[in-house]
Amino acid sequence: MRLTTLLDTLNNGGNGPWPPEASTLTDPEFDLVISSLIPCRQNDAELWFAERESEVEQAKALCRACPVREGCLAGAVDRREPWGVWGGEVFVDGVVVPRKRGRGRPRKVAAA
Ligand code: SF4
């Protein structure tokens, strides 16, 4: 997905292109500028799909500073992302969960 598609979901008040210099950039240049602002493009992407809770929390913290967080989360909810950290939230089986539980742990509630 082109990053501008993601950015289209941002509420920038209809004040023109964002970032402002974007209107003079080619598509690849624009994507490069935007990528430089997005934490999951600047760090190891595996962090967003980590198993360790400490790493998941690190990904969530990095998302909090992301300029496209709101749109990212909305898109992930729409797509019912099967897993990973999206928009600062943890997804498991297409829904947001409060925290990721490690593999092999028993369910809190017995399965029916
Ligand atoms: S909010 Fe989305 S785009 Fe931004 S760092 Fe988190 S996962 Fe990446």
Automatic annotation (TrEMBL):
Record PTM: The Fe-S cluster can be nitrosylated by nitric oxide (NO).
Keyword Iron-sulfur included in the entry's annotation: yes
Protein purpose: Acts as a transcriptional regulator. Probably redox-responsive. The apo- but not holo-form probably binds DNA.
Names of required cofactors: [4Fe-4S] cluster
Protein known as: Transcriptional regulator WhiB
Domain of life: Bacteria
The keyword Ligase is annotated on this UniProt entry: no
Free-text comment on the cofactor: Binds 1 [4Fe-4S] cluster per subunit. Following nitrosylation of the [4Fe-4S] cluster binds 1 [4Fe-8(NO)] cluster per subunit.
Record-listed [4Fe-4S] cluster binding positions: C40, C63, C66, C72
Family: Belongs to the WhiB family.
Species whose genome carries this gene: Actinotalea lenta
Keyword line: 4Fe-4S, Cytoplasm, Disulfide bond, DNA-binding, Iron, Iron-sulfur, Metal-binding, Transcription, Transcription regulation
Subcellular location: Cytoplasm
Residues of the 4Fe-4S Wbl-type domain: 39-96
Annotated transmembrane regions: none
A Pfam family hit: Whib
